[in-house]
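Q: what does this look like with pyridoxal-5'-phosphate bound?
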Amino acid sequence: MIYLDNAATTKMSKTAVEAMLPYLENWYGNPSSLYSFGQKSKEALESARERIAACLGADPKEITFTSGGSEADNQAILSAAILGERKGKKHIVSTAFEHHAVLHTLEKLKREGYEITLLDVHPSGVVTPEEVAAAIRPDTCLVTIMFANNEIGTIQPIREIGAICREKGVLFHTDAVQAVGHVPVNVKEDNIDMLSLSAHKFHGPKGTGVLYARRGVRLFSLIEGGAQERGKRAGTENLAAIAGMAAALEEACGALEENRRRILPLRERLIDGLSEIPHGALNGDRERRLPGNVNFCFEGIEGESLLLLLDDRGVCASSGSACTSGSLDPSHVLLAIGRPHDVAHGSLRLTLSEGNTAEEIEETIGAVKEVVSYLRSMSPVWRDLEEGKKEHLL
Ligand SMILES: *Cc1c(COP(=O)(O)O)cnc(C)c1O
């Protein structure tokens, strides 16, 4: 099997698995218990918090553990909305290509009377700080813009956007789920007020994540119950997963440069190889993207058929995000960067990790070329394009 879907989830690192085992096997005490067996768990929890904070340039008190990226996004946005409403500010700025954890939360707020401005994204897959500045109004309570896109991997000018928000006195949240552990992220230097991350995107366990909130930014709990996480997230902590997340994050942040050096040539070769397929195009800017992200559109094919045939050849790929597969709508991300419906349907996302090899990349290039030709040979749409009855768009 060739695993090229690391934006959907990653294999756990050995270090992360080993960091979890003591808490699954022996140290099962509740961190909230007063006896020393529970306090041992409490110490492990706080140690994980300190180490995660250090990786982000944050203070441990600014770290809240959540069940993952989706919960962190929900809590960040809903907290800012509550704070905004108290000041009579009910306008939020975001982009059209956010993850659904952000977009669906914003839709909910819209139904509750908030005004949402979704900025257009350029064909390069980037929003500019100037556009963000122009969208901010006196009643804006939050700007939420993702650090790196989960489908096309493009990286946003987060530091500049953060600086603008700070200057205008507006809270700034970033969904950094795809960025943390893959590119340098520092909440202080990057002017970030709130940030979401998820362990399973950097070789940690699924079902655990973090919401960073700068000191002074008040969070409201989504879950009623005990006083865990200083009252900001009720429920007994998933200590094993949190310990695994801390170990995975330290490992990923320590190897950031090394992993980048290993993955980048593979990505470049994959892009070059797939660029040889006629009437196809890379989605998003080639430079300003995550080291492991490749995303193409090919005219005259259906992304779903492409994925199934690649699966037959042992290649795990995606056509968009894991969350949209199963739906027949084209990716909202590809539509947001201006790809027409027909073209957006024929998309392929391949996301690499440092475990991939040059041989796997060559095999994948060969497999994609064959499968695309095969699908086109059977496609009525492709026949119309070839016979000139329809115009090629790519
Ligand atoms: C995966 C992902 C999420 C959701 O994280 P979960 O931990 O799976 O809930 C949110 N945002 C982005 C950009 C993602 O890639």
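Residues 68-70, 73, 99, 101, 146, 150, 175, 177-178, 198, 201, 209 surround pyridoxal-5'-phosphate (CB under 6 Å). The longest strand covers residues 293-298.
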